[in-house]
Amino acid sequence: MNKEMFLSKSLYLNGLQCKKYLWLKIHYKEKLQEPDDSLKAIFSVGDKVGEKACKLFPGGKQIIYDKTVSHSERIAQTKKFITDGVKTIYEATFEFDGVLVMVDILNIDSNNNFEIYEVKSSTWNSKKNLKDIEKYIRDVSIQYYVLNGCGHKISKTSVTLLNGEYIRGKKENINELFIHKDVTKEVISLQNKIPETLKSFRSTLKSKNKEPNIDIGWHCKNPNDCFGLNFCWKQQRNIPDFSVFDIFPLTKKSKALDLYKKGIVDIKDIPESLEVTKTQKNKIDLTKRNKLVINKKEIKSFLSSLNYPLYYFDFEAYNQAIPKFMGVRPFQQIPFQYSLHIRDKLSTEPSHKEFLAQSDKDPRENLVKKLVSDIPKEVSVLVFNASYEKSVLGKLAENFPQYKEHLLNISNNIIDLAEPFRKQHYYHPQMKGKYSIKVLLPLLVPEMSDEYDKLDLIKNGGDAMRAFANLSTIGDQKEINKIRKSLIEYCKLDTFAMVKIHDKLRMM
Predict the structure, then answer these.
(1) 170, 202, 234 — which closes off a domain?
(2) Looking at the predicted structure, is the pLDDT value of residue 4 above 70?
(3) How far apart are alpha carbons 147 and 158 in whole angstroms?
């Protein structure tokens, strides 16, 4: 490794997860996948939470972080602020032993002792313990190592998290929004291991041509999905899209890993003698048979539970890490849209109703008012994956008690269209263990196989969530109208697809 090359704290954490991941990051970055839109959105949320957390320590100085400012300039600026007696520095930058770190919030007490605050956009609640933030503690530990190596006395290290039990009032209470978890003891306990770890990393990085001999395993997805998954799993080992890893969850002691080490990757090669659960056995057997399964008796039984008029229903929702609306917790699902196809009788074509909120206001109450108007009590409400809709309705009932009875009645009358597919009463080999609407629609309704692809801007729930969340930042009304139209088209397609899937089940 080039002596002038710094290991950042993110690279250090990459190395802790997998030294091959670190090696690829340094020498063959092109082998790694780029973050998708969903992950970029998570990064953006993290930035916003970090900015908000700085207000816990007002009046501090910011170290500028952009491509025009070098690492050495940021380090020099940090030293100057410390010398000048600045008590709080945001993104304070230090280097020691070839490792570069930036401290989210550095606070200096009256005795010139340093306090490190590492800000994360994850939530903390009373049910969690320090093991749940183990990866963040490792993050803080390398910062402690560097600052201590620079000769600074550190009195406290904390992970600053969003309070998952915080409920926004009329005004934001920033001191209740965040929780500081003191991890000083845990961080200090990790210090002795760091020099040897860094030595190991440098040895790994020494040669660009010597790839670390590290097999796939639990570390590929722990603590985070590695960006090298496609390279290591698909390109190097030809792990198929539907493999033993889709039957057994990837854990430290996964049956999938045991099978893989024995050369068994294809589900068809799983031995009959392997001890599995009933659900796992069904998946294995169906895959081995490679035939269409239609359990007409069970499908008929499911259909008999539906009464008319029948309401095909789907929510779209987004969340706010930092709640803007009263009564909302961090990352609480906030519904902003729904689509509703209504079939009065079995023989009639469905009508359609919809709601899409304005982007600059709390959408919930107007949505609730329209919803209880559109869906009467004691009717069958058909959704796909009921747990989500039930969860959103339950939270709305909690937030708007005047509509609680009606909302819970809707929830109690929900029937899950996913049930026949989840229970494998219908199974097509091309489902490969999955049963989302987008998987089922091309199989059951081939004439609609490209309907989602034909949509303009919004093609999935993630797109819808991000588009609505960003609407208020768009100044061009034509662009706003275009996005709103796309949101309506997408949500409408979801419930219309449910109508068509239901129709196909009736024909079986």
Answers:
(1) 202
(2) no
(3) 14
